[in-house]
Amino acid sequence: MTLAEDKAAARRAGLARREAAHAAAVPGAAVRLSDVLAGYRGVPLAGYMPIRTEIDPLAAMAEAAAHGPVGVPVIAGRDQPLRFSRWEPDAPLRDGPFGARVPLVDDFLDPEILIVPLVAFDAVGGRLGYGGGFYDRTLERLRRRRPTLAIGFAYDAQQADALPLEPTDQPLDMIVTESRVIGR
């Protein structure tokens, strides 16, 4: 198999595991993420608006927003890094690409911490997303400017033994699941 075929197979497997975990999930999955973010109060961060069966970080993002700026990703265009618009709980939103909601009015910020959604992860910080490369381009751009902490947020079931990765795939510094923290 080619690398592209290996990645496609790993994505299918990861999405199936995530779907099953999402169906069985109980409320409160973001508690551990809130605990991690408490150590970074006031540091500009970006989360995401969950789509499909992604684990929901909104409770942790709302808590963080009480202490500092929080953004959500806005897709600028194909093959472009993401931009992050300031988000507040209960602020008006509009529909964005791929079904994710974005702030009605853009107020862009550069985060120092990214809460990253994913399809699958491995124990050494490898991440497999949907295949568009948005987070890889974004992390590469941000990390060229300054240290940027990438926190993958996922269900335990999304862990894979190994992932087919390329040199352009940006590693995660930490993975937070509903039951544990991996890294740092």
How would you briefly describe this protein structure?
Helix content is about 25%, strand content about 20%.
Itemize the secondary structure elements and their pairings.
Blueprint: H1 3-24, H2 31-37, E1 45-46, H3 58-65, E2 70-74, E3 83-86, E4 93-95, E5 101-103, E6 108-109, E7 113-116, E8 120-121, E9 127-128, H4 134-145, E10 149-153, E11 174-176, E12 181-182
Parallel strand pairs: 1-2, 1-7, 7-10, 10-11
Antiparallel strand pairs: 2-3, 3-6, 4-5, 8-9, 11-12
Helix pairs in contact: 2-3
Keywords: ATP-binding, Ligase, Magnesium, Metal-binding, Nucleotide-binding
Protein name: 5-formyltetrahydrofolate cyclo-ligase
Family: Belongs to the 5-formyltetrahydrofolate cyclo-ligase family.
**Which geometry do the CA atoms define?**
globular
Major sheet summary line:
8 strands, mixed
Pattern of helices and strands = HHEHEEEEEEEEHEEE
The radius of gyration computed from the alpha-carbon positions, rounded to a whole number of angstroms, is 15 Å
Largest sheet: spatial strand order:
6-3-2-1-7-10-11-12
- Provide a count of the helices: 4
Structural class: alpha/beta
pLDDT < 50 stretches: none
Kindly state the mean pLDDT as a whole number?
94
Number of strands: 12
Distance between the termini: 34 Å
Helix content: 25-40%
Strand content: 15-25%
EC number: 6.3.3.2
Keywords: ATP-binding, Ligase, Magnesium, Metal-binding, Nucleotide-binding
InterPro entries: FTHF_cligase, FTHF_cligase-like_sf, NagB/RpiA_transferase-like
Protein name: 5-formyltetrahydrofolate cyclo-ligase
